[in-house]
Amino acid sequence: MSAPQDSLGVSVYHLESVFMKDAVCSSKDTKGILLARVSKIYDIENLEGPPGVIRKNSASTICPLDGNQGAAYVHCIEGEDHVGDATHMLSYSWNYSIGDIVDTLTDFCLQNKLNPKRTYIWICCLCVNQHRVVENSALPRSGMLVQNQVDFFPILGERVQTIGHLLAMMAPWNAPVNLTRIWCIFEIFTACTTDRCKVDIVMSPKEKQSFAQDVINNGKGINALYELLGNTRVENAKASVESDRLAILRKVESGVGYQKLNNKVNDLLRGWMQGVLTQLVENRENTNNVDYVIFCNRIGMILSENGEHEAAMKLHKCALEICDTVFGEQHEETAATYNNIGLVLLARGDYEGALSKYKEALSIEVFVLGKDHPKVANTYNNIGSVLQDMGNYKGALSMFRKALLNQQQSGLDRNQCPRLATTYSNIGSVLEDLGDYAGALSKYNQALAIQVAVLGTNHPKTASIYNIIGSVLDEMGDYEGALARHKEALAIRLQVLGTKHPDTADSYNNYGLALQEIGDYEGALSMYLAAQTINVHVFGKVHPCVATTYSNIGSVLDDMGDYEGALSRYQEALAIRESALGKNHPSVATIYNNIGALLYAKGEYEEALLKFKECLPIWEPVLGLNHPYTQTCLKWIVTVKTALETTAHDQRSW
């Protein structure tokens, strides 16, 4: 383990009372305090120039590590109120201002009821000997390494494990500098993957206030949150010293790989965001007015989009109680809250509950806003979506077309409106369900053009359309095209939504289907298992999404010749779908069809015929006689009957 002198930290009290004063004294401006607060670490200690605050204070001190004159700043201060064994390690950028660093650490102590005099921070600018950094290299140094040639990965891991608590500082919160710096990203990842090391993401009070304000500014905070996730890529991060950057990249590339590191860091960030959002609501005074309702609903929507459905529902119900009490039933915000509750219920698989809430919202909106208001179109889309999930495709198509007509008549820009893109996508989806793949592809491409123009390629909604187009191409037999689209969608979702989001699971499933179509069964099974891990984590073991993945696993096991394993998975999927969706849902018929095909492959023709005959009465009324699924089922029935007749004939001949 590290020597004690190498694990010393500077107290938060010292940073606030002494170090800040030293920085003020070094200021040449008459407004010393103000200038010191906004000065960056590089401003007060430029390693390419003469000694600054850090090296001046420690220049005459003998370094306890090598016995030479010139020590780390931490080695020149005394007294347990000022220095002690590090309790926390700070991950930050030398581009952060001194004021922000001190404010962040002071606030962390306050929020966690820690004594600033006994909270010791290992911070590289003060705890690494900057004299040796300069002496041992003629090149500019990062301030992280003392020696020119050193295996710094074990040293970092050892330090993180010894200290046991990393504070990752975010500033500014919506575009943190440290997430563009390779040392900071690698520190966070190292801490995340080190046993018994805790990681907290911290902000200054100023940044917290900015975060809260951005959340309520017309949804801008939501986009900022997505940007925060999408911008974390270790392979694009920078370092002051190129050799540091290359060494870290080589280490990552030969070890866990870029994607795993990025995903791990992004998962941490999402957990932090959810905690901060929940805290914002807890800290806000309940004023029983429209602003508070909007605030609760907006944060609830963010939580729901990140898979935190229970927390989201709690906020939406709180908003609804206020609406009922203060505004009454016939109010625009009451309708909005019903819609939000419907979205959460839909995400949880409660289709009847979601449909009921959407219909309540529609009734209020038509009464209060009029039938031609754009919000009415949104609710038409919501109702259409749940009808589609319930297997009522014609009803869904009717709702989506009402939404499109409303939007076209309201004068929305056909090239720049995300809501119009949503409606095109919805119509495409139900056309796909009805077997009109060419019509579906046309609508999806219209939606994609709008989404890319408005949101760019690295956005969850763009990923969704890539995913959907991939599925249509798969149905049309263009397997290579499908594989390319699913690969694009999965890469975006992993980066932006992370490894624990249901949409990421959806991409794993679809990517697996494309791999299965081209005969890569092992690859497909790997994708399905990844999807199942996420779905069980998010939804529990009894949910339609879990059933879908069981069905997919059964399908690929079937292709691999593991009929018993496949049948087991199909039966698990069937039990869930019958329980969650009812016995007459089209997706239940899909399982009957799959089981029938498997039994046929095993030569169990009588049992296979029974399954196909259970399938047909479900598909035909819903999908129609000419739908590809219905036609496939009819062909199977003919095939099985032929096999039975052939078997009977052979037995008679024998």
Question: Could you characterize what this model shows?
Answer:
It holds the Pfam family TPR_10. Keywords: Repeat, TPR repeat. InterPro entries: TPR-like_helical_dom_sf, TPR_rpt. This is Kinesin light chain. The protein has a domain of about 280 residues. It is about 70% helix and about 5% strand. The chain has 30 helices and six strands. The chain has a six-stranded mixed β-sheet. α1 crosses α2 and α1 runs antiparallel to α5. About 0% of the residues have low confidence.
Q: Give the helix proportion (percent range).
A: 55-70%
Number of strands: 6
Mean pLDDT: 87
Overall, the morphology is globular
Largest sheet: 6 strands, mixed
Radius of gyration: 30 Å
The helix tally amounts to: 30
Sheet-strand content, in percent, reads under 5%
SSE class: mainly alpha
Q: Could you tell me how far the N terminus lies from the C terminus, measured between alpha carbons in angstroms?
A: 81 Å
